[in-house]
Amino acid sequence: MIIARVIGTVVATRKHESLVGSKIQVIQPLDPRTEEPQGGTLVAVDAVGAGVGERVFVVQGSGARQALGDDGCPVDATIIGIIDELNVQ
């Protein structure tokens, strides 16, 4: 699981049938201690209705498909939670 910030939205008029009706977001992974950008951006399916600017939890790989309830879905990253508060000691 990674912590990221939603930085944009993807609009696709054509996509795989299992993604029809899904919101797709552009996310920037963050260093959990500093909240500074860490690494390159990713595209993730939004399972929770996050908005641009929000910090989110993201799962990747098979967990991303399981979060959507479709093991055959061609997804590698899914937003599974919106972070209200982050406290790292």
How is the topology of this model organized?
Layout: E1 2-10, E2 23-29, E3 42-46, E4 55-60, H1 62-67, E5 77-82
Parallel strand pairs: 3-5
Antiparallel strand pairs: 1-2, 1-4, 2-3, 4-5
Task: Sum this structure up briefly.
This protein is mainly β and 89 residues long. It has one helix spanning 62-67; strands at residues 2-10, 23-29, 42-46, 55-60, 77-82. The relative contact order is 0.28.
Question: Characteristics of this structure?
Answer:
5-stranded mixed barrel; 89 residues; OB fold (Dihydrolipoamide Acetyltransferase, E2P); single chain; globular; mainly beta
Describe this structure in words.
By secondary structure, the protein is mainly beta. The protein has a single domain, classed as OB fold (Dihydrolipoamide Acetyltransferase, E2P) (Beta Barrel). It is built from one helix and five strands; from the N terminus they run ββββαβ. It has one helix spanning 62-67; strands at 2-10, 23-29, 42-46, 55-60, 77-82. Strands 1-2-3-5-4 form a five-stranded mixed beta barrel. The longest helix is centred in the last third of the chain and has 6 residues, at 62-67. The radius of gyration is 13 Å and the shape is globular.
